[in-house]
Design a protein that fits this description.
Blueprint lengths: L1 H20 L18 H16 L5 H8 L5 H23 L19 H16 L3 H9 L5 H18 L6
Helix pairs in contact: 2-6, 6-7
């Protein structure tokens, strides 16, 4: 009986590994190799993105607190408009079979829901509410001189590392 149970457990682990391999971040990674200086385009986009965050007051701790206290629509409007733009972009990519700037096909893979997403979302939201920062605005906050946010950034990196370390043992 114990051998059968072990075989079922081993089989489940293999299947679980196969399922988890589908959610890796490199699925749409470009196969082409580029010189290191091609990364400056990402730096430029990041700087523009940070300026937009500052001008739109997305990095404001007070705006984030207003959102979590349901006192202002500002952040909900920003997040909602980002969702709408993202939906429109995905729809356009699928409808017109748009490719990357290097001519490679963009593939969308279906994601399977699991209960760990609820736990992760709650932890993420709690951290966001407590610190007034989520991963995107962290860098803009640091760039504008709020050096205490370095503690939040290091905590986010430590949390990500901890999740990666314990991922196989967590419920998915």
């Amino acid at each position: 009986m114990e051998r059968v149970q072990q075989a079922v457990t081993d089989q489940h682990k293999d299947t679980d590994f196969e399922v988890r391999s589908l959610d890796t971040i490199c699925i749409n990674e470009s196969a082409k190799q580029h010189p290191w200086w091609h990364n400056f385009k990402y730096l430029a986009v990041g700087i523009v993105f940070g300026i937009v965050f500052v001008k739109a007051e997305i990095i404001s701790w007070f705006r984030i607190q207003e959102m979590f206290r349901l006192q202002s629509f500002h952040m909900y409007g920003v997040i909602g408009s980002a969702v709408i733009v993202g939906m429109a972009a995905v729809w356009l990519i699928k409808k017109y079979n748009i490719r990357t700037i290097h001519g490679e096909e963009i593939v969308f893979h279906p994601k399977k829901f699991n209960k760990g997403q609820i736990y992760g979302g709650l932890i993420f939201g709690l951290g966001w509410a407590l610190t007034g920062a989520c991963p995107g605005p962290l860098f803009a906050q640091i760039g504008t001189g709020f050096m205490i946010v370095l503690v939040v950034l290091l905590s986010a990196v430590a949390g990500t590392w901890t999740y990666g370390f314990f991922r196989d043992k967590l419920p998915h």
